[in-house]
Design brief:
2 domains, Arc Repressor Mutant, subunit A, alpha/beta, Rossmann fold, 225 residues, four-stranded antiparallel β-sheet, single chain, 20% strand
Length: 225
């Protein structure tokens, strides 16, 4: 899953970026409001973590502009402003959640996970497809109760396909959501990742679920055939 972190404090921005990266997210980050709006307008994010007091554009202006553009990415406001009026103002502007500094990283992570699930209409962190269980909170994959060992990248790929199960997902969408850097258009990195994931799932007896739609992308079946 891909996140945008717009946070004025370089120190906090760096620590959050590292922590969220270790938690399995691809994170774009900036401390400038104008650049934050540009990022949000130029990419599709599963969640945006937005400070309010920013140089350039302030967080509420960014939020209002995104909602005026019908940008529906979930937004979590992360700020030191803690009055009831501040919370009401942020939520009324279109924020999906509001967390006051200082905060526990574990709480921030749990809130982000909930917003990412909401984006794909999947309120339960456990995605079950036949005997396959993908736990997006614990970040584990089990087949009939037995754990399947995946690399962080393979888990991110399976998580994204599972979140959009039943939908055709293009290579470009996969690249944008699970890779930190731009991928060469001629690269077969996505195809190779799909092949590796299929092999590991198959080795544990998982019924083939990931189908190729030639010229379009991939789809993870919503139920085993």
């Amino acid at each position: 899953m891909r996140l945008l972190l717009v946070e004025d404090s370089a120190r906090l921005r760096g620590s959050l970026g590292r922590g969220l990266g270790r938690a399995g997210y691809v994170v774009d980050s900036t401390g400038d409001g104008n650049e934050g709006l540009w990022f949000a307008e130029s990419n599709q994010y599963d969640t945006i973590v937005l400070d309010l007091m920013l140089p350039g554009l302030d967080g509420l202006t960014i939020l209002r502009r995104l909602r005026q553009q019908q940008n529906r990415a979930p937004v979590l406001i992360l700020t030191a402003r803690d009055t009831v009026e501040d919370r009401v103002r942020g939520l009324s502007a279109g924020a999906d959640d509001y967390l006051v500094k200082p905060f526990a990283f574990e709480e921030l992570l749990a809130r982000i996970q909930a917003l990412c699930r909401r984006r794909y209409d999947s309120p339960n962190p456990l995605i079950v497809i036949g005997d396959l269980a993908v736990d997006t909170a614990a970040r584990t994959v089990k087949q009939a109760g037995a754990c399947i060992d995946l690399t962080p990248r393979e888990f991110m790929l399976l998580e994204y396909l599972a979140a959009r199960r039943g939908e055709v997902v293009s290579r470009r969408e996969i690249e944008a959501h699970i890779y930190d850097d731009a991928v060469d258009p001629m690269s077969n990195v996505v195809d190779s990742a799909i092949c590796s994931l299929r092999r590991k799932l198959g080795a544990h007896g998982v019924t083939p679920l990931i189908r190729t739609r030639r010229g379009m992308g991939y789809v993870l079946e919503s139920a085993p055939r």
